[in-house]
Amino acid sequence: MDKLQIVGGKRLNGDIAISGAKNAALPILCAGLLTSGDLDLTNVPRLHDVRTMLRLLEQTGLKVTQDDEHVVLNGANITSLEAPYELVKTMRASILVLGPMLARFGEARVSLPGGCAIGSRPVDQHIKGLRAMGADITIEGGYIHAKCAKLQGTRIHTDMITVTGTENLLMAAVLAEGETILENAAREPEVVDLANMLVAMGAKIDGIGTDRLVIQGVDALHGTRHAVISDRIEAATFLCAVAATGGDIRITNTRTDIFDVALDKLREMGVQLTVEGDTIRARMDGRPQPVSFRTTEYPGFPTDMQAQFMAVDTIARGPSRVTETIFENRFMHVQELNRLGASISTEGNTAFIEGVERLVGAPVMATDLRASASLVIAGLAAEGTTIVDRIYHLDRGYDRMEAKLSAVGADIVRIK
Ligand code: EPZ
To answer: Which alpha helices (H) appear in 246-291, and where do they start and end?
Structure first.
């Protein structure tokens, strides 16, 4: 099991290139099931979750050819409509094959994703929406069995805003009969990226970027070329790192218009940000000012940035409060941060952080993807050596993080 060994206290200086967004790439790969044409993708991040998704899709018969720059999918010869448990249990996003399989083939057998460290994460809204479109869905033996001769467009109002729920139902609706209206739709930039690509494939979607998507079903979609949107969560993670260590970095190959709330919070912390095209320059000296926030759906403060900002708050010049409203158990990093000398207490879904002068390195354990990133940030700022164990969590969602960090001066190595 790999670990990361970090010797903290080094300022960060230099350029970091941001990769494509994991949470855009995963639904976009599943859209390859919607057409018999070529889906020619660039800026696909090299992540464990992407490799898992490609393995799952290849098992259905989808053809995958890739080189350094491109991942080309072709769904002309799909031979299996099953997403098996052994793959789905490692990655919940596998549920995203359900909508496309039903839309194009009228059938799917998808293992129910288990919960995960940050919460139970049910998929009842995905099922409710597909049933509303006429799918006959039974759950048996841990699998979702779905059948439908032809999905019918209808109006669907999900009980809560769900990112992959919106994506699944959107991919179902593009080939359904008639008009589908998705109310209370998720507006995350990754949902927008998927929708824009579906339109390039011939789909008819109005309201992209709003909470109301109106889709006119078409008979078939053709292939297209698409560059996956840049990962705003990865960009914010590195900006939190420099907020914690001090330094002067440039984040390149990033979008600067899709995480304003996080950028505002970084300025509140005392980070000097200048935006030039697809580059954000971040300069930081001294201890950060504390920032309080509560996570909400886009365009609010992203839950996927909560742990990373909390890591910076641990050494801020004062107290702060963090409230997590999306997941019921997304404070797994709190105890681990406290092992590094942080002073955090929690009451329900709110964490109270006392800023301390300094953290001190220690062995800690990653529990989920963004918690791992939070521990890396804390380790970079701590005095002495921090060992982060179970970093397979980190590898699911970050493309060579230690290489990007050591290239800007961090003392961080992967040990087997
Ligand atoms: C997506 O997960 C992201 N994953 C998550 O990123 C992200 O944290 C989350 O959206 C919220 O932004 C991908 O896009 C692959 P939800 P998703 O459905 O779609 C409840 C990361 O770190 N809910 O928006 O699974 C659910 O339990 C990952 O990259 C239901 O109750 O999240 C949660 O409390 C972690 N029933 C809330 O809604 C449903 O049918 C939001 O979940 C669906 C969701």
So the answer is: 260-269
**Residues framing ligand 1 (Cβ under 6 A):** 22-23, 26, 92-93, 119, 121-126, 160, 162-165, 303-304, 326-327, 369-370, 397
d(CA 116, CA 251): 31
Active site residue 116: yes
Q: Which of 160, 234, 309 to mutate to test the pocket of ligand 1 (most atoms within 8 A of CB)?
A: 160
CB 173 within 8 A of CB 217: yes
Closest CA to 217 of 328, 335, 104, 303: 104
* Among the listed residues 332, 384, 390, the one whose alpha carbon sits nearest the alpha carbon of residue 359: 384
Q: State pLDDT tens for residues 109-136.
A: 999 987 677 777 789 999 999 999 999 9
Does pTM surpass 0.90? yes
pLDDT digits (tens, 9 = 90+) for 244-262: 999 999 999 999 999 999 9
- Of 33, 35, 31, the residue nearest 44 (C-alpha): 31
